[in-house]
Specification:
mainly alpha, Butyryl-CoA Dehydrogenase, subunit A, domain 3
Length: 452
């Protein structure tokens, strides 16, 4: 908030209103008789009905409300913003119905640049009025949801394309979610011990951080090609029992080393972390697919893990499908987790560690009670970054038969159907934002009060 010639100015609200008005310079709707033609873009003056004019008036008033010096400005701005959303929805609904009347089953109406620009204006204006009215953002969100629930956009192309693929949409949505979350879980299992290893042993710092950064630079399609032959061999030749033996032996060695008569527990911890990391890395395909099967509710796949058979037949580990996608996604999720865990641990003041040791805590207690509470905000930031990254990258899993929402994106590209592309892309963005918000809230809860 700034002062301009004695007038209190809400620059954010003014900006939102200005962008809303500027949306009239771009087409609002696009009509295509079929997928093969470019279609006709419809500007504001080509639309029918009064609603689009009312929307523009509302945007102008929203911008002016940012200049109004009154305690009621937030309430007025919120009411105008909700009214603008309603007018936009009515414009889209009425004009879509009119354009599609008698146009045939292959005709599509899509929103164009003007509407997308108004979405940006809604976000900015909601933020602006939200600085003056506490419940402005929830009311705007409810208004947007109400337009969807009431079917204002049911005649638009994305809604029509969704209806055509609705029988498989939620299956692919679940696969996308399971691939992303399973990869992040395995990345945490591997990345956190590796980061702690780098913190405890400065000689390995460059190797761990540099290695995680190097893996991030590998193109996803190239990585799929590299994984094709090894995973196919693992699926045909390696039994579940062999992988389970690696896990058990690694765990036993880690436990045994922790009991060796080494002076100082800190000398043993790096070795234990290395063993845990290597064990998890060797068992990565099995661990990732196990979590994936659990998330999608594939009970048959879970039961197959106890059978002494090849991984190909029992767990679905092969050169194409979910397994290479999970391995690739895990590799890409490692960098934010490793780096943020390392930074979080390094940010713990030496005085805190010394004070904890002075209170008689052993190394484990120092880690759990002194270091971890201070480092966990940074660690959760890395987890947020890895999760959002995974939800986006999982799109390419469809290229190798891994499924997910990328399936609809690829179909849309092949069929020259932007609306079908949106059916696959929009849920990815929404899922990533929701997960990010939940992890942000979790970070606020677990962060010690003194660090908030």
């Amino acid at each position: 908030m700034t002062e301009t010639r004695g007038l209190k100015l809400n620059a954010i609200t003014v900006l939102g209103g200005a962008i809303g008005v500027l949306s009239a310079s771009l087409p609002w709707l696009l009509f295509r008789p079929n997928r093969l033609v470019q279609g006709d873009a419809l500007a504001v003056w080509q639309l029918s009905g009064p609603w689009h004019w009312l929307a523009l008036v509302a945007w102008a008033l929203i911008g002016l409300s940012g200049l109004w010096r009154s305690s009621l400005r937030g309430y007025v701005g919120t009411a105008l913003l909700v009214g603008a959303i309603a007018a936009i929805a009515l414009t889209i609904s009425s004009n879509a119905a009119l354009l599609l009347s008698g146009a045939g089953e292959f005709a599509r109406v899509s929103v164009s640049g003007g509407v997308w620009l108004m979405l940006l204006a809604i976000y900015i204006a909601a933020f602006g009025v939200g600085t003056e009215m506490k419940f402005a953002a929830p009311m705007v969100l409810l208004a947007l949801l109400a337009t969807f629930v009431l079917g204002a956009y049911s005649r638009l192309g994305p809604a029509v394309e969704y209806a055509a693929v609705s029988d498989t949409f939620f299956t692919e949505l679940l696969r996308h979610f399971a691939l992303s979350i399973a990869a992040v879980i395995v990345a945490v299992v591997i990345g956190v011990p590796l980061a702690l290893l780098a913190v405890r042993n400065s000689r390995l710092e460059g190797l761990v951080l540099g290695g995680a950064g190097l893996l991030q630079t590998i193109p996803s399609l190239a990585l799929f090609g590299v994984l094709l032959a090894p995973l196919a061999w693992v699926g045909r030749s390696v039994s579940v029992g062999a992988v389970l033996a690696i896990i058990v032996i690694g765990a036993l060695l880690s436990f045994a080393i922790s009991r060796l008569p080494v002076s100082g527990l800190s000398g043993v911890l790096p070795v234990r972390f290395a063993l845990v990391g290597v064990t998890a890395l060797v068992a990565l395909p099995m661990l990732a697919v196990l979590i994936y099967n659990a998330l999608i509710g594939n009970l048959g796949g879970l039961a197959a893990f106890v059978q002494p058979a090849a991984l190909l037949s029992s767990a679905g580990i092969r050169g194409i499908g979910a397994a290479p996608a999970l391995v690739a996604l895990t590799i890409y999720a490692l960098l934010p987790i490793v780096v943020n865990t390392f930074v979080g641990m390094k940010s713990v003041p030496e005085g805190v560690i010394d004070a904890a040791k002075g209170m008689g805590m052993n190394q484990r207690q120092v880690f759990l009670r002194a270091e971890l509470p201070i480092a966990i905000p940074a660690m959760l930031t890395g987890l947020r970054g890895a999760t959002v990254l995974s939800f986006g990258l999982t799109t390419v899993a469809a290229l190798i038969g891994g499924g997910g929402l990328g399936f609809f994106i690829l179909r849309g590209v092949d069929a020259n159907a932007p609306d079908l592309i949106l059916v696959g892309a929009a849920p990815i963005v929404i899922l990533a934002l929701v997960i990010d918000a939940l992890l942000r809230a979790l970070s606020a809860v677990v962060t010690p009060k003194g660090l908030r």
